[in-house]
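Office hours follow-up: a student asked to see two folded examples consecutively, so here they are.
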Amino acid sequence: MDRQPREEKRCRHLRNKGMYIDVEPDPEVPSMSDGFCWCAHTQNCLGPDGDAVCKEDCGTQRNCFEAV
């Protein structure tokens, strides 16, 4: 059975602090991610459409979405 990885629809403007850490994850160290995201287009926690920015909601259903 040939399974392809699930294609993730992620907005090119979605940012989080984990994107700026250039080290391999260490399974012995708990994640320091606070889950906070922001929009690179607006530079705050609200997208251009006025809705909150988060990994779960910044997808194809929003009119401001731009694929990676």
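And the second, which I mentioned at the end of office hours:
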Amino acid sequence: MKPRVILFIGSGILLFFFLVYVFICQHRFAVIDKKWLILFSKYNINPKDITHDESVWYYKNKNTCVFYSEWKDTECPRHSRYCSGKLNSAGNAELQVRAIREAINNKGEHPKCPLIYPSTN
């Protein structure tokens, strides 16, 4: 085979795997930080049921609509997430976990979720 054909086929294979990764794989992380684990225990939430991505908490793979951030002063997108803190901020860890508990008590999604349509994830 000619080098151009091999390069073309190789590029196509890499593009395929990249698209699978971006559109199919879930980019969620398990909770391993001790401070979060202690708070989940305090609120009777099994940490194995909780994951997060860069901006939202999930309970049993369902979007809770609760904004996730390690930093309590992070600005929260109030039009698409429930902001646990004051002045549209993420809030501290305890406020976020308390909001997750409210979401769990509300069938998995926070009752003050600003989204018009319920979560499908």
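Two things to take away from it. The chain has a mean pLDDT of 84. Residues 12 and 116 are 39 Å apart (CA to CA).
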